[in-house]
């Protein structure tokens, strides 16, 4: 049973436009959500996170939106740059004791075209 | 500040053997988590260690074990290797001062079981 799902395996966006990556979850006990970016042969790199008490968090070009009623979160990248081409994972955790036990989605490969 | 380091980076073993992987967290980080990444299952949580104690555990068989030392360095061991254990094993460390802390990942150890 996959508790965190990224239904789009890949996404192609033109440089300068907005990239929107989506993630759905089924466990209503998740209270913290994170996005990671991964290049080949490297470990995932933390991008941005959001607590379930918020519905939006911004950090530079990256914004994460959380819709708890729909159990859906999205990552917006504006403007998209060639260096953003990577695999993006969303992850979730539950509670204080489980804060370090991340449940990951399958990832979305983002390609930024010049 | 040095990042998370993992050794070795690549490893080839045969079925039935056992293997030990090592992880050195970022200085000052007390929590170390281990993940397995495979093409079919994605990134899956193995276990987390905090102050030399296993605090969280994923759904993996008992052949997978770990430990953490007083300097926060961690090792994971897989005994009686199976072909399906071929994967990228990622270690992540976290500060754990507040409830929610992002995890910082190492580059991973690529294990191939023949």
Can you describe what's shown?
The complex is a heterodimer of chains A (114) and B (114). Chain A is mainly β. Chain A is 0% helix and 58% strand. Chain A is built from no helices and eleven strands. Chain A starts with a strand and ends with a strand. The mean pLDDT of chain A is 94. By secondary structure, chain B is mainly beta. In chain B, 0% of the residues lie in helices and 53% in strands. Chains A and B meet through β4, β5, β9 and β10 of A and β4, β5, β9 and β10 of B.
Q: Spans of chain B of 5+ residues with little confidence (pLDDT < 50)?
A: none
- Let me know the average pLDDT of chain A: 94
Estimated radius of gyration of chain A: 13 Å
- Describe the largest sheet of chain A: 6 strands, mixed
* Helical residues, percent of chain A: under 10%
Give the overall shape of chain B, derived from the CA principal axes: globular
Count the beta strands of chain A. 11
The major β-sheet of chain B equals: 7 strands, mixed
Low-confidence stretches of chain A: none
Strand-residue fraction of chain A? over 45%
Classify the secondary structure makeup of chain A into a structural class: mainly beta
Class inferred from helices and paired strands of chain B: mainly beta
Total strands of chain B: the figure is 11
What's the helix count of chain B? 0
Instruction: Give the overall pLDDT of chain B as a whole number.
Output: 92
């Amino acid at each position: 049973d996959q508790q965190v799902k990224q239904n789009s395996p890949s996404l192609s966006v033109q440089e300068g436009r907005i990239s929107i990556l989506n993630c759905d979850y089924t466990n209503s006990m998740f209270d913290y959500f994170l996005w990671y970016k991964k290049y080949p042969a490297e470990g995932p790199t933390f991008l941005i996170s959001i607590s379930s008490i918020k519905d939006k968090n911004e950090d530079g070009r990256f914004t994460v939106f959380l819709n708890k009623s729909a159990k859906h979160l999205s990552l917006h990248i504006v403007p998209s740059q060639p260096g953003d081409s990577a695999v993006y994972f969303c992850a979730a955790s539950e509670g204080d004791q489980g804060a370090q036990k991340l449940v990951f989605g399958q990832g979305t490969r983002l390609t930024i075209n010049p | 500040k040095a990042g998370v380091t993992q050794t070795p980076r690549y490893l080839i073993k045969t079925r039935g053997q056992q293997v030990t992987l090592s992880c050195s967290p970022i200085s000052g980080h007390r929590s170390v988590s281990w993940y397995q990444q495979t093409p079919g299952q994605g990134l899956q949580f193995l276990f987390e260690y905090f102050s030399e104690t296993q605090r969280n555990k994923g759904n993996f068989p008992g052949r997978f074990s770990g430990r953490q030392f007083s300097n926060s360095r961690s090792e994971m061991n897989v005994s009686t290797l199976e072909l399906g254990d071929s994967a990228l094993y990622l270690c992540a460390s976290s500060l754990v001062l507040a409830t929610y802390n992002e995890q910082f990942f190492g580059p991973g150890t690529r294990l191939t079981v023949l």
